[in-house]
Design goal:
By secondary structure, the chain is mainly β. Helices cover 0% and strands 51% of the residues.
Length: 116
């Protein structure tokens, strides 16, 4: 199982970024996918999740209305579109999939820095 995030970088407040998480090694279309983030000195937190077919999404209150999670099951990839970015969004962003009792898998993370 591999999850590889990309798309992070430095952006000014109010700007946008689109993160991607390319996956392999499992039946992507069968599993919920999630994005998490971890800011310096803080615990990792759930940002958004999306059901296996993409019909249901959930968002943290802190990013609701600004971020959109989506997936392309033909490309085995999950995305996080981030708009109206704020300095408080600065963190390492990770994608994750969970196989229940068989464990969870994480990507290596991608750094997002929001600063002027």
């Amino acid at each position: 199982v591999q999850l590889v995030e990309s798309g992070g970088g430095l952006v000014q407040p109010g700007g946008s970024l689109r993160l991607s998480c390319a996956t392999s090694g499992f039946t992507f279309s069968s599993y919920v996918m999630s994005w998490y983030r971890q800011a310096p000195g803080k615990e990792r937190e759930l940002v958004a999740s999306i059901s296996s077919a993409g019909g249901r999404t959930n968002y943290a209150d802190s990013i609701k209305g600004r971020f959109t999670i989506s997936r392309d099951n033909a490309k085995n990839t999950v995305y996080l579109q981030m708009n109206s970015l704020e300095p408080e969004d600065t963190a390492v962003y990770y994608c994750k999939t969970s196989f229940g009792i068989r464990g969870s898998y994480w990507g290596q993370g991608t750094q997002v820095t929001v600063s002027s």
